[in-house]
Task: inverse folding
DNA sequence: CGTGTGTCGCTTATGCTGTAAGCTTTCAAG
DNA sequence: CTTGAAAGCTTACAGCATAAGCGACACACG
């Protein structure tokens, strides 16, 4: 039952190597050849475990989703949902190069469905009707994934980085952005993410 | 000054053709050769107007953003912002194949910055302080782009389409999703999008 | 202890891709 | 009419996903 030298590859190992590779080199750099090399194997050998590159990408999304930590059920519904979305955002920060795959190729697996079921259960348990629970799920998920993507890509007007910096813009043409320049240096993305969560959850509580 | 037959290509024409092509054939199908063919020209000719494919993609995002319709200033701030995000979502529905580019390669152009400036001006004018205006911008934009992406890709559990259907899932394992199956057929995405906008804007008004 | 048998990795080959380099055609200005 | 630049064309290259077929090893069974 020991992994013989021959049987060195399997789907799991391939997907995890792909995630590691993309974490390191970026999504564009991923090719079957290079991933094979990473595993000490020729490109075509990967096809024994994965039907094509698209399925490889989907598998990477699975791996990512597997890292999502669902909070225990005994917490209050609101804190549980908060914590779940924090964990979701953590995925983006830990795998900024892989995360976009999750947005572009949403999972179609039982794992993904199970997550949704869990979410709905929590909200139904809190007293929301089925339809509101669905709306809440989509609003919160939309917000979280949109925010996380923006954070990964770097917000426009961030003081440092390659994107346009607020302070370099003409104060006459862009007074409001320029004014923000002062604040931008000390913006706390954790607090900012939480702000949006607050708005949505407060609104939801109002519909209970 | 008349466009001679020779001078048939220019950046604008190329970008618009690219958007049209991707609308029709999908993002993956876009190649310099095929785009050239679309314009009756060899692939390499495109490089006289666009430095590389990345810049082409960025230019397509520009074109998309150019289609965004900003509501006039004389409306109330809330309705103006609502209308702006509705227009944003419309982009996604009109160009579902191109829109993901906007999320993955956010624009770094003056056009984009000008949009932000406009947004901030509206919110500052409504009485929000600079920092809250920034938070609001990011929360709303995150929500809108995340929701639009989800809508484009097709929500999980949508009754029709290739994604997993709620009603095909075992009612025992996934009671909450199954229960939704009844509602899913008549979900109105317009109303759903508006629901999230309501939550966020109501919360924001509370901080005025 | 043979001897299949099927799994899995390797080799080779095809038709794409983006794009560098250099050539040629065309138009406009002097 | 000459000259120069702009812009299209041709060719070429390295890298891509992946189809097809080959060969070697690991295990199951006699």
Result:
């Amino acid at each position: 039952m020991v992994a013989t030298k021959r049987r060195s590859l399997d789907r799991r190992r391939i997907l995890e190597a792909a995630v590691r590779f993309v974490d390191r080199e970026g999504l564009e750099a991923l090719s079957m050849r290079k991933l094979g090399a990473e595993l000490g194997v020729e490109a075509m050998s990967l096809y024994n475990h994965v039907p094509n590159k698209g399925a490889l990408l989907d598998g990477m999304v699975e791996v990512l989703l597997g890292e999502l930590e669902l909070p225990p059920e005994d917490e209050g519904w609101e804190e549980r949902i908060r914590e779940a979305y924090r964990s979701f955002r953590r995925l983006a920060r830990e795998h900024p190069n892989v995360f976009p795959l999750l947005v572009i190729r949403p999972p179609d697996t039982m794992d993904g469905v199970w997550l949704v079921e869990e979410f709905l259960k929590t909200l139904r348990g809190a007293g929301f009707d089925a339809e509101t629970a669905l709306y809440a799920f989509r609003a919160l998920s939309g917000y979280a994934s949109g925010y996380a993507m923006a954070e990964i890509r770097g917000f426009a007007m961030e003081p440092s980085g390659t994107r346009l910096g607020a302070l370099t813009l003409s104060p006459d043409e862009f007074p409001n952005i320029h004014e923000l320049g002062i604040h931008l240096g000390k913006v706390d993305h954790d607090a900012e993410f939480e702000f949006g969560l607050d708005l949505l959850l407060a609104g939801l509580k109002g519909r209970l």
Observations:
- Residues 4-7, 31-33, 43-44, 47, 52-53 of chain B lie near DNA strand C (CB under 10 Å from a C1').
- Chain B has two domains: 11-50, 70-206.
- Chain B touches chain A through 61 residues (CB under 8 Å).
- The radius of gyration of chain B is 21 Å.
